[in-house]
Amino acid sequence: MDATGPAGGTAMIRLSGVGKTYDDGTVAVQAVDLDVAPGELLCLVGPSGCGKSTTLKMINRLIEPSTGRIEIDGRDVTGEDPVRLRRGIGYVIQQVGLFPHQKILTNVMTVPLLYGESRATARARATELMELVGLDPATYADRYPHQLSGGQRQRVGVARALAADPPVLLMDEPFGAVDPVVRVRLQDEFKRLQRDLGKTVVLVTHDIDEAVRMGDRVAVFATGGRLAQHATPAELLARPADDFVADFVGSERGLRRLSVTPVETEHLEPLDDVRLGDLGAAVEIGCTLEEALAAMLRSDNAMVAVKRGAIFLGVLTPAGVHRALRASLAAAG
Ligand SMILES: Nc1ncnc2c1ncn2[C@@H]1O[C@H](COP(=O)(O)OP(=O)(O)OP(=O)(O)O)[C@@H](O)[C@H]1O
């Protein structure tokens, strides 16, 4: 097993007392303790200049910590050869950094070729990865980067980062350059992909909505590189650790809870003599209140049918949404 665990598997990341003071005396990160469980997606969020990118880059040693220890699967990264280390860590940045004069397929093939795969294997792998990130190879393989939209380029960046099948992915504002609608779709798709592939991911964003939507856990950094809170999205929104976090998550945090609270059977009301098709809008049990509310708003009724597969379970009404939010608030407290 190498420094970063078996390729394709998941890895545990641990930061203990990790700090960074730059040569000019800027304290970018203060003694931070953070664990990322295997297969977990951790979002680092906070205002500009609070040390998020510095923290991320210390994990793959693009920046050396001034203090503390960073372990991947129990092994200190500072003892590892940086080149070898980075092979087990995919890295996705906002400016994707595609080769402008190479076709998309060739861009993605670069990584498998780098690892000594034959051209045929690299081509097959790159084609598979394009499909995985939702870019039809028949349409996009032979295009050049400038012939793609920002969101499509971002998908290529993710495909390329996955090409080496690294157990760990580090992402710095990966969806920052795309418009809000495409952004939400990319976030949802990436989250699904990450769950399926079981990668351990650390993702930097300045957007609290992105953090609570995507993170299994969220680390909120405050100015001066202080880790202000490390919690699940639901805990963070229900119980901000201090005034800084409360201010950062914002007064709309009740609304934000919609995206992290699932619809459960106890929030539903029965409806007699109704068939699934009669109500128009229907959602699956376990979806978020946000999704259920969106379906409710699309329908003519002030309610939405909730089902499990083909079975009708009941209806969710605005009062049910309210009850669900109150219950989750109480549970998180
Ligand atoms: N090479 C450097 N030398 C000195 N100071 C630096 C250096 N790189 C970053 N900093 C400072 O360290 C602090 C943290 O920077 P960092 O890039 O980690 O923040 P960030 O939270 O990622 O910010 P943003 O959201 O704006 O990208 C900032 O005050 C920044 O000015």
UniProtKB/TrEMBL annotation:
GO molecular function terms noted in the UniProt entry: ATP binding
Domain ABC transporter: 13-249
The keyword Nucleotide-binding is annotated on this UniProt entry: yes
UniProt entry keywords in alphabetical sequence: ATP-binding, Nucleotide-binding, Transport
PANTHER family linked: OSMOPROTECTANT IMPORT ATP-BINDING PROTEIN OSMV
Protein name, per record: ATP-binding cassette domain-containing protein
Family (UniProt): Belongs to the ABC transporter superfamily.
